[in-house]
Amino acid sequence: MLSNTPQRLVEMVRGITSESVDERHIWADVPGYWCDNGELNCDEGPVLAAVLAWATLIETHIVEVREGFLSSLSSLIVLDLVPTEVLELVTSGLSRDSLDISEVEFYDALATKLAEHRKRSS
Fold first, then answer.
1. Mean pLDDT, all residues of the chain
2. Distance between alpha carbon 100 and the CA centroid of its chain, in Å?
3. C-alpha–C-alpha distance, residues 18 and 8, integer Å
4. Under 8 Å between Cβ of 73 and 56
5. What is the DSSP string of 1-28?
6. Are 110 and 77 in contact, with CB atoms under 8 Å apart?
7. 10: which residues sit within 8 A by CB, 6+ positions away?
8. Which of 44, 60, 77, 107 has the least CB density, counted as fewest CB within 10 Å?
């Protein structure tokens, strides 16, 4: 891992968006790990959440990769680093009924956070 520099985020985005399934699989859980360990700041989190949301919606390897993206997003919501628009994108772009059982917990956390965001803004 790179030290706490902008280059580490560039490397992460490259890994998340790699053509290689193996590379995406390696990086899918890293944002959540960094979040859990306090290695993301308030400026980085929302940007990374947007990248993860996009990657989640286009990912074709569900259990191998998409689950990791959803897990990382759910870690980011604990620190309230996922903007409402990103939560809306993921929950409107994925149907809960189409998810693998391993993804449901993470999706539900995103949907719950979205409901909280909407409640605050009304």
1. 93
2. 16
3. 15
4. yes
5. ---SSHHHHHHHHHHHT-S-HHHHHHHH
6. yes
7. none
8. 60
